[in-house]
Write a structure and sequence with these properties.
By secondary structure, this protein is α/β, with parallel strands linked by helices. The protein has helices spanning about 45-50, 75-80, 95-110, 120, 125-135, 150-165, 180-195, 205-215, 230-235, 240-245, 250-255; strands spanning about 5-15, 20-25, 25-30, 35, 60-65, 65-70, 80-85, 170-175, 200-205, 215-220, 225-230. A hairpin with a 2-residue loop joins strand 10 and strand 11 (about 225-230). The longest helix is centred in the middle third of the chain and has 14 residues, at about 150-165. The chain is globular, with a radius of gyration of 19 Å.
């Protein structure tokens, strides 16, 4: 029996007569990298917002580690170990890379707003912060002011600050969006590296990224689950190809 970390049952979200997420049954296995893909407007971000409780479902349930979290608040979700990358991204552009990660670590300790504490008392976090920067290949940028980081490195910093919260399940919302080829490759390698011992659910448009690192793919169309399986299975699915016609059909083909 598969070890399922996150499961939704008949998850539905309606907005004044418009159904954005329609009866979605999602099963994310522990230790997997699981991708949620689909054409624009398919309901992927709404689904993420339901899972992190930025939106309340109209109906259906969400279970995490076997526990019903359908009515939990965002902060409770985060404390249980579901962390979404943008929630704790590099939101302090004029602090250094190291300081941003350290704030992520402080949030985990519940001391994130103790800015009045001396630099010395915070320095015990520096070693852990530097370890995280090493993990995402940012150690040499530790003293760089975040606003001066190249775009791809900023996304790597978001992943480092996410890791600082010690997530059991990481939700990455389009981690390679807007990147050039070199940055895409670097961030893809990074996601694979940090997935060791963790579970990742990601929304991603780039099919070469998805084909390279994902164990399982769920395809949404008009809010409903259209297909699910490995990249090979999904890319051969006639309904999926039709859903992507005119948008990403070339990407599905080209990523083989």
């Amino acid at each position: 029996m598969a070890d399922v970390i996150l499961e939704t049952s008949h998850l539905t979200k309606e907005f004044k007569g418009f159904t954005a997420v329609n009866d979605v049954n999602l099963r994310v296995e522990r230790g997997h990298i699981h991708a949620l893909i689909g054409p624009n407007g398919a309901g992927k971000t709404t689904c993420f917002n339901l899972l992190t409780k930025f939106l309340e479902p109209s109906s259906g349930t969400i279970h995490f580690n076997g526990r019903d979290i359908t009515t939990a608040r965002p902060a409770q979700i985060a404390r249980q170990g579901i962390i979404r990358s943008f929630q704790i991204s590099a939101v302090f552009p004029h602090l250094s890379v190291l300081q941003n990660v350290r704030i992520g670590l402080q949030r985990g300790l519940g001391t994130s707003f103790h800015f009045w504490k001396s630099e010395t008392s915070q320095s015990r976090l520096n070693e852990r912060a530097m370890g995280l920067l090493e993990e995402v290949d940012l150690a040499k940028f530790a003293d760089t002011v975040t606003v001066d980081l190249p775009y791809g490195r900023k996304r790597a910093l978001e992943i480092a600050t996410t890791l600082a919260m010690e997530p059991e399940l990481m939700l990455l919302d389009e981690p390679t969006q807007g990147m050039g080829h070199e940055d895409v490759s670097r961030v893809t390698d990074l996601i694979k590296k940090v997935s060791a011992g963790r579970t990742i659910l990601m929304v991603e448009h780039n099919m070469s990224v998805v084909s390279g690192i994902c164990n399982k793919i769920s395809v949404l169309q008009r809010g409903a689950l259209l297909a699910e399986g490995s990249y090979e299975e999904v890319s051969r699915n006639a309904q999926v190809m039709e859903a992507y016609m005119g948008t990403a059909s070339g990407a599905l083909e080209g990523a083989h």
